[in-house]
Amino acid sequence: MMDEAQPWLVVGLGNPGREYAGNRHNVGFMVVDLLAGRIGAKLGRHRRAVADVGEGRLGFGGPKLVLVKPLTYMNLSGAPVAALAQFYKVPPGQVVAVHDELDIGYGQFRIKCGGGEGGHNGLRSMSKSLGTKDYVRVRFGIGRPPGRQDPADYVLSDFSQAERKELEFLVDRAADVVESVITRGVEPTQNAYHGA
């Protein structure tokens, strides 16, 4: 059940530090940075959590967004998210996690609420800290590693040259998906983007 008065917590999952900035695992950070630009939010360190946080509204008089980039490493993302959800009084159904997804082809998106974490340590940490799996996930497809490359190495490597040609467009599209979840709901967003 959506609460119009409550803000939405949009969490981009990633790792802090310049060396990780272009990694596939950091696509959540990229999307949050773009959303911050769209709503005119300035990301800065929050006093209640180890995270960069920015606030703003989606459109004139629209829903309030709290954009979050946890500054713990991926595996520990849950603690700052839970602290911020409590601080802003955001119900789990209005928490949106944006993350990379190995099981979806590059350039595709899947949106879901609840369910398993698919081995994603950032989601696992969030579920544990929030005490529920009933939050929204915007899954940004990065595809499987080529050949025998270890998935752990693959997610911590930068997007390929060919992928980078499309990356800006796809990050923009992912931001559209997040906005659609907030303004239209999960199901209409699934209908709009799952075939695309």
UniProtKB/TrEMBL annotation:
Site location (Discriminates between blocked and unblocked aminoacyl-tRNA): N15
Residues the record marks as site: Stabilizes the basic form of H active site to accept a proton: D100
Reactions that this protein is recorded to catalyse: an N-acyl-L-alpha-aminoacyl-tRNA + H2O = an N-acyl-L-amino acid + a tRNA + H(+)
Principal EC category: hydrolase
One Pfam family per UniProt: Pept_tRNA_hydro
KW Membrane (keyword) present: no
Domain of life: Bacteria
Principal location listed in the UniProt entry: cytoplasm
Enzyme nomenclature, EC number: 3.1.1.29
Residues forming the catalytic site: H25 (proton acceptor)
Keywords: Cytoplasm, Hydrolase, RNA-binding, tRNA-binding
List of residues binding tRNA: Y20, Y73, N75, N121
Subunit composition and interactions: Monomer.
HAMAP family (alphabetical): Pept_tRNA_hydro_bact (MF_00083)
Protein name in the entry: Peptidyl-tRNA hydrolase
UniProt gene name: pth
